[in-house]
Write a structure and sequence with these properties.
2 domains, homodimer, alpha/beta, TIM Barrel, elongated, seven-stranded parallel β-sheet, Lyase, Ornithine Decarboxylase, Chain A, domain 1
Chain lengths: 309, 309
Amino acid sequence: MSAALPGRRLRPHVKAHKTTALAWLQAARGHTGFTCATVREVEGMAAAGLGTDLLLANEVLDARRLGAVAEAGACVTLAVDSEQTVEAAAAGGVREVVVDVEVGLPRCGCDPADAGRMADLARSKGLEVRGVMGYEGRVMLVEDPEDRLAQTRTAMELLMAAHADVGGELVSAGGTGTYRENTWATEVQAGSYALMDTAYTAAGLPFEQALTVLARVVSTSPKGWAVADLGLKSLGMDHGNPTVPGGLVWFCSDEHTTFSPLDGESFAVGDLVRALPAHVDPTVALHERMHLIDGDDVVETWPVDLRGW
Amino acid sequence: MSAALPGRRLRPHVKAHKTTALAWLQAARGHTGFTCATVREVEGMAAAGLGTDLLLANEVLDARRLGAVAEAGACVTLAVDSEQTVEAAAAGGVREVVVDVEVGLPRCGCDPADAGRMADLARSKGLEVRGVMGYEGRVMLVEDPEDRLAQTRTAMELLMAAHADVGGELVSAGGTGTYRENTWATEVQAGSYALMDTAYTAAGLPFEQALTVLARVVSTSPKGWAVADLGLKSLGMDHGNPTVPGGLVWFCSDEHTTFSPLDGESFAVGDLVRALPAHVDPTVALHERMHLIDGDDVVETWPVDLRGW
């Protein structure tokens, strides 16, 4: 990713890994501006010495904790998309904002035609408007590259029109799924590339899924199934069940996954399995630490220190 | 629940709330034996002064942390279902076990016919065998009471046969869904009743869902949707999307839920919503604290102190 989007062209999203040790590796490659999804992520990044340029790509109605981080010396930029969020930014002591524009994903962001008014309002409150952001989230998993490009263009034309009304140097957009197509953005908010997700892997991106959850087989049945000690509480389940290599997953309980061996495979009590979660982001949020491994050796252990809100 | 299953007839399962402050309220009603799903839950309960009788209703291959808790003075009983788990219990310094018997749920538990052999093996290693446990998990959400009773009987006849071979005073089984039907168990491992789940509520049980996730509307669109600041990372998603009262939920992202107002409802930026998670247990595991409320007043704040492993 650093080769494709060097330096500030990439604003890594820390929500994908919630780990300042990994963010430091990204910063060491020249990506010194970061995207955050929560106030806690902003606080934690600043506390870890990574506060050069933190964008909270999300709306808040109470910006006081962010103002305190800015007051302590970090650069904090906040997304705004309404009068209320502009007022919250100013009242909370945040100094810099971007106007969040809705470009086809039904989530946050003002109407593109309303972006200039938001910028004017923000400036009238003494805020510096650094530009715009917009997330073409619906495009991320479009498999056909031409279709992906066409849909990215449609979204980014909306964002560029808003940018013309707003001004500022930033056009912050994109993600792992569109990092090649989105040439409109001045910076791409990609996060998943670092650990990757099964769904993105299926979409033909040149990154590998790096994150597994290590579990142990704690029980086997003469009726043919095995049970590993990972479950709902250690896996992001919104995309469904995890994959157990060599096994067919039947179901997950709070602390268990029941599966049967595929043809030619067998599992014994005590065996370790490396399960692939169906969705990496929420899986990371459930764990206190990640172990960086080289084969079977643990090279480093990283606290997942940006969890919570 | 205390009226139906007084004192030691109920062994509350702490996995459902992971909160020692709530466990203390259960203990104050006479339920001084508890069920745990993880080693961390056992450690945390003992550290909180609730170590009178802790059952880890789960298999482990390394029981040393449990042995340390027992050595420090708590009563720790561990489920075993294989030679390896018996050996792990003995090697780890655990002194008391129950034989976990598979009674129809494809998960842990030995074959009922094998339970006596497990007990003999455990006793040969110097372990005290307190009895049996078995979980009729497949019966929990059976809606028809007669069918639920019939299926509970089928499962418990297997467990009672195993108990005859194993000995000991405990027959530990059941859950919130079968607390009325399971008259075979000497103690019922119910946990969900304390906070309840949407699915159990639908099954006609006389407990109310107590847990909501408080969120704020951070954005609204002229196109009709609203966005609240709770998402995949604050909700157990294995049972699907949360319910937002007055709204139709479209989808959840990491930190957002997009929904549209139902007829006659409207939502404005800044509004608070109390979302009902589709599954309470894994939702609790995502949060650092719970606020006990009376209307809009926060009466107490409880750390969710049994998270992790």
